[in-house]
Structures are given as structure tokens and as C-alpha cells.
């Protein structure tokens, strides 16, 4: 399959930059996911890679060859659209075979490829049916099969599961992941659904307002978010983000704000406005000496999730969310202290929104991520 390099890619529409000077690489065999909210530029970026939209500036390389000015049919890429885009008057078999008609393959080779893909996707008993006779999940598999049958350099998918119900999305995600493992192909996948990104991707590119916020594995973007935006976008419930400031006392650095006490690292640092981040599942009912950070407030709401419960703690003028096992008995109106260990606390520069990291001895400094 193929490696895709994007160099300084920009797309400008009437004064608005939908994609702003993006550079990144998808290696051969990556399952790359472009993740972000609506309007962040992810579909525009995918359409430029596919050749459906000409960039304002920048380059696209496939296996080292510049394809920026090539039409879609010469890039050897297959696209799966959100709307399926099946031909309603053709059978499943003819829909699958349609992309092969332009390749001038023999009838025997066309039939072989169609049957092979149909078997892979569990469509072999549906070949005579028309799209209107299929379920949403079956239509989606036909749309994927029409891309597979071409045996392209890479597969591009634009929110292909958004029209499916929750149960079907779960099973189809698993099918796509297994398909990627079998093919060892390069997949580029657009979604605003973080669950899809976290469960399928080998590489996630988080986009915001046409720019890259972070590139990393699912574990990296979840465990070490590079910015306030990523921290708040990834995770359900999202990370708690609390404005505060750094101070020094008793030989330790503290992160302080209303309702929060902390004792972070030994050392000194200049006073600094920050955003403190901690994920709900990392907050636990605190003992007096438990953890590096302690948050005290009043329980405003509880949600029973079966094996877990979510607690909404009113701390000053904001709600802090905690998530944990139900064996801890809690009630509305109760005063509660939640604690977090040092390795669960994230600090971000308030001015830039970027992550800050503590570098221990011999430097003993906080540095900002780029």
C-alpha cells in the first residue's frame, strides 16, 4: 500500500482558511483518523487528498510522487462517502463491479474480485439484491466493498458510519478494524466521533479551526493531551478544566483556585496563570492525606450508569465531574472531597492553551509544549 505526505496544505474560501498550512505523514499501513468538530477542516483535507478539491497551496505526495495536480482517477485512491452513493438501479454485484469497468479487466477477473470482496464483507448471498432491499449496514458494506474491489493504494472514508444506529456503528467499527488488519492497507478516516477514533485508529490527527492540535496514538491524545482543546474534546465525560494559578509555598509548587488545594512538585516557579486538568475517572473520594490535589464541594447531581456513577460537584461557580464505582454511597447535597494523584494532573498555559510539563532535577522547571 502507500505512504501519504502532506506538506503545507492550505485551502482558502473567500477569506476563510478551512485548512491552514497543514503538514503531516500517514505511513504505509496506518489507520489514520482525522478527528475534530464540525467545520474544523477534516473533510476539506480529505477531499484535497482525494483530488476532489484543488488546494490553494501546498503539496500532496503518494509514495514520494507529487500528485497535487493529478485528477482523482490517476491517484489510485478509493473513497467511501457518508451517503453510500450506490447506484439504485444496479444490483449489489453490479455496484461492486462498476469501478472495475474502467480498468479494462477481463470478465473472469472482475467476477473473481467481486466474489472475493463480497465474501470478505459477508455480502455473497446479497449479490442479486438492489440497494433498496438492503439494510443501512448492508449498504455501507457495499459502499466499502466498491472501494476494496479496486485494490487501491489507500482507502479514504468520510464519516461512513454516521447514518447507522448506535448498535450497528459498533459492529461496523469492529468489521472495519478487522478489515484493516487483514489488508494491512493505508486507511484515512474522517469523523467527529471520538469513540470511532479511539477504537480504530493507529494515528489520530486532532483538528481545530483548520489547524492541527495534536498528532498521536489514541493513548497519547487521551493520556497526554497537547492543549486545552484536545483535553476538552477527548473523553466522556470530558476532562475537568479549571482556571487557576501556580504559586510556591513550603518548598513546593502548588496549583491554586477556589475549592482546590494541592501540593505538586518540590521546587520553585514564577507565578503563572494556568488551566488545571483532571479526568473524571481519576478523581476519587479523598482521605485527609490522599493525593496531590484535593477538590471540595457539594454534590449537585448523581448519574447511575449501572456499574459506575457520575457525580457533579459544585465547587464555587463551576461543576467538577467525578466518575467511579457505585459501591461508594453518595447523596445529593452532601459535602464531598475528591482527590487526584500527581500523575493524573495536567497543567496548561492559560495564555496559549498548550500543555506544560514538569522536568525534574537537575532542571526543576515547567516547560510549555508546542
Explain how this protein is built.
The chain is an alpha+beta fold and 370 residues long. The protein has two domains: 4-232, 3-Layer(aba) Sandwich (Rossmann fold), CATH 3.40.50.300; 238-368, Nucleic acid-binding proteins (OB fold (Dihydrolipoamide Acetyltransferase, E2P), Beta Barrel). 21% of the residues lie in helices and 37% in strands. The chain has eight helices and 22 strands. The chain has helices at residues 42-50, 92-97, 107-120, 136-148, 166-183, 194-200, 218-223, 228-233, and strands at 4-13, 16-26, 31-35, 57-62, 65-66, 77-80, 154-158, 186-191, 203-208, 211-216, 240-249, 252-256, 260-262, 272-278, 284-285, 293-304, 308-315, 318-325, 335-340, 345-349, 355-359, 365-368. The strands form four sheets. It has a six-stranded mixed beta sheet, sandwiched between helices. The chain has a six-stranded antiparallel beta sheet with strand order 12-11-14-20-21-22. β7 (154-158), α5 (166-183) and β8 (186-191) form a beta-alpha-beta unit. The longest helix is centred in the middle third of the chain and has 18 residues, at 166-183. It is elongated. The chain starts with a strand and ends with a strand. The mean pLDDT is 89.
Biggest sheet: strand arrangement: 6-7-8-3-9-10
Per DSSP E runs of 2 or more residues, the count of β-strands stands at 22
Are there runs of 5+ residues with pLDDT below 50, and where?
none
- The coarse overall form would be elongated
Please identify which CATH superfamily of the largest domain we are dealing with. P-loop containing nucleotide triphosphate hydrolases
- CATH secondary-structure class of the largest domain: Alpha Beta
Which range does the strand content fall in?
35-45%
The separation of the N and C termini measures 32 Å
* Largest sheet geometry: 6 strands, mixed
- Fraction of residues in H or I helices: 10-25%
Number of domains: 2
CATH architecture assignment name of the largest domain: 3-Layer(aba) Sandwich
Order of helices and strands: EEEHEEEHHHEHEHEEHHEEEEEEEEEEEE
Which structural class is indicated by helix and strand composition?
alpha+beta
Assign the CATH topology of the largest domain.
Rossmann fold
How many helix segments? Answer: 8
Overall mean pLDDT stands at: 89
Radius of gyration (Å): 25 Å
Amino acid at each position: 500500500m502507500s505512504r501519504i505526505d502532506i506538506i503545507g496544505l492550505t485551502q482558502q474560501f473567500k477569506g476563510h482558511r478551512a485548512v491552514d498550512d497543514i503538514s503531516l505523514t500517514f505511513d504505509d499501513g496506518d489507520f489514520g483518523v482525522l478527528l475534530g468538530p464540525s467545520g474544523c477542516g477534516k473533510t476539506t483535507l480529505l477531499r484535497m487528498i482525494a483530488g476532489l478539491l484543488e488546494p490553494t497551496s501546498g503539496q500532496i505526495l503518494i509514495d514520494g510522487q507529487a500528485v497535487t495536480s493529478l485528477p482523482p482517477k490517476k491517484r489510485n485512491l478509493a473513497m467511501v462517502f457518508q451517503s453510500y452513493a450506490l447506484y439504485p438501479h444496479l444490483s449489489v454485484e453490479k455496484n461492486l463491479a462498476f469501478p472495475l469497468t474502467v480498468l479494462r479487466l477481463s470478465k473472469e477477473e472482475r467476477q473473481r474480485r467481486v466474489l472475493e470482496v463480497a465474501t470478505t464483507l459477508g455480502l455473497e448471498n446479497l449479490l442479486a439484491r438492489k440497494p433498496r432491499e438492503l439494510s443501512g449496514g448492508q449498504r455501507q458494506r457495499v459502499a466499502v466493498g466498491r472501494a476494496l474491489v479496486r485494490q487501491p493504494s489507500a482507502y479514504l472514508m468520510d464519516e461512513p458510519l454516521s447514518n447507522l444506529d448506535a448498535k450497528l456503528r459498533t459492529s461496523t467499527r469492529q468489521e472495519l478494524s478487522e478489515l484493516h488488519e487483514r489488508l494491512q492497507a493505508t486507511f484515512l478516516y474522517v469523523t467527529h466521533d471520538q469513540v470511532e477514533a479511539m477504537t480504530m485508529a493507529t494515528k489520530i490527527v486532532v483538528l481545530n479551526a483548520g489547524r492541527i492540535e495534536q498528532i498521536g496514538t489514541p493513548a497519547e491524545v487521551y493520556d497526554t493531551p497537547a492543549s486545552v482543546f484536545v483535553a476538552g474534546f477527548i473523553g466522556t465525560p470530558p476532562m475537568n478544566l479549571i482556571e487557576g494559578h501556580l504559586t510556591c509555598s513550603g518548598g513546593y509548587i502548588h496549583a491554586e483556585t477556589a475549592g482546590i488545594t494541592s501540593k505538586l512538585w518540590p521546587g520553585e516557579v514564577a507565578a503563572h496563570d494556568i488551566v488545571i486538568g483532571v479526568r473524571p475517572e481519576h478523581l476519587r473520594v479523598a482521605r485527609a492525606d490522599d493525593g496531590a490535589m484535593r477538590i471540595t464541594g457539594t454534590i449537585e447531581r448523581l448519574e447511575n450508569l449501572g456499574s459506575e456513577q457520575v457525580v457533579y460537584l459544585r465547587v464555587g461557580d463551576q461543576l467538577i465531574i467525578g466518575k467511579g464505582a457505585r459501591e461508594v454511597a453518595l447523596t445529593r447535597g452532601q459535602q464531598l472531597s475528591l482527590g487526584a494523584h500527581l500523575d493524573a494532573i495536567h497543567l496548561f498555559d492559560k495564555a496559549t492553551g498548550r500543555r506544560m510539563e514538569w522536568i525534574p532535577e537537575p532542571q526543576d522547571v515547567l516547560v510549555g509544549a508546542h
